[in-house]
Amino acid sequence: MNEELANLIKEKIKEGRNKEEIKNLLLSHGWSTEEIEQSFPAPPEGSLAFPGVIFILRETLLIYRKKIITILGISLVPLIAGLILNFLLNFLSDKNLLTINISDSF
After folding, report:
1. Residue 22 neighbours by CB under 8 Å, 6+ apart
2. Whole-number Å distance between alpha carbons of 26 and 5
3. 35 CB-near residues (< 8 Å, 6+ apart)
4. How many angstroms separate the CA atoms of 14 and 27, rounded?
């Protein structure tokens, strides 16, 4: 097994590339299929290896990041306004600045 090739493969896996992408890249740079296959790390026993999942999750987060921030911002505005209004109403009623007499309205 070629250590240089194994390290290069590990780097590409950390970048989130899948096995096919790495293999095609290495083949285009002159590595043989046999060398590439021998240098790929074996998946841990009893687990499924999905190196592309990290890449997909990262790309999804990048795509939806602005939308998530916008939704959170829109949700926080009424919440903060309600808290301020609640505080003001409690403050004004405690100082007897705001009194409501229901009997006077009839």
Report:
1. 9, 12, 13, 36
2. 9
3. 2, 5
4. 19
Residue 43 and residue 72: Cα distance in Å, rounded? 39
**51, 19 Cβ separation under 8 angstroms:** yes
DSSP 8-state assignment for residue 29: T
In this structure, what token pair is assigned to residue 44?
Answer: 């841990």
Q: pLDDT tens across 16-44, in order?
A: 888 889 999 999 999 899 998 888 877 66
CB 19 within 8 A of CB 57: no
* pTM of the complete model: 0.41
Given the structure tokens 């926080």, which residue do they identify?
Answer: 76
Number of C-beta neighbours around residue 34 at 10 A: 8
